[in-house]
Amino acid sequence: QVQLVESGGGLVQPGGSLRLSCAASGFTFSTSDMSWYRQAPGKQRELVAYITAPGGRTWYGDFVKGRFTISRDNAKNTVYLQMNSLKPEDTAVYYCNKMGGDYWGQGTQVTVSS
Q1: Structural contact between residues 11 and 56, judged by C-beta atoms closer than 8 angstroms
Q2: Local structure of residue 21 (DSSP, 8 states)
Q3: Which residues contact 113 (CB under 8 A, 6 or more apart)?
Q4: What is the pLDDT of residues 55-114, one digit of tens each?
Q5: DSSP tag of 43
Q6: What does the alpha-carbon distance between residue 57 and residue 54 come to, in Å, rounded to a whole number?
Q7: How far apart are alpha carbons 79 and 76 in whole angstroms?
Q8: Is the dihedral of CA 38, 39, 40, 44 positive or negative?
Q9: CB atoms < 10 A from the CB of 54, how many?
Q10: Which residues, at least 6 apart from 101, have a Cβ–Cβ distance to it below 8 Å?
């Protein structure tokens, strides 16, 4: 079955960086579009970025453009989210998603605070 396991979250100061990883299994990763969502307390889950397959075309929410980068390693069945210049408003649980279905990981907490 589809499994998505996120890692890399943590506590970071404003302006800092984190790299999230999502290890995928149970499906053909190399032909699957993948995305990252986030959900802050009291707010709806929102799409942060996605990357297509093949070709690796990317899309970003306006709130992360120029700061976050999504990438994938098909040899490792892993999708990444490099987050730079983090802001307190980036604090949320970040989820990996296999697009086109209701497939989610357990999430990883990102907290940006001084």
Answers
A1: no
A2: E
A3: 11, 13, 14, 88, 91
A4: 789 999 999 989 999 999 999 999 999 999 999 999 999 999 999 888 998 999 999 999
A5: S
A6: 8
A7: 9
A8: positive
A9: 9
A10: 2
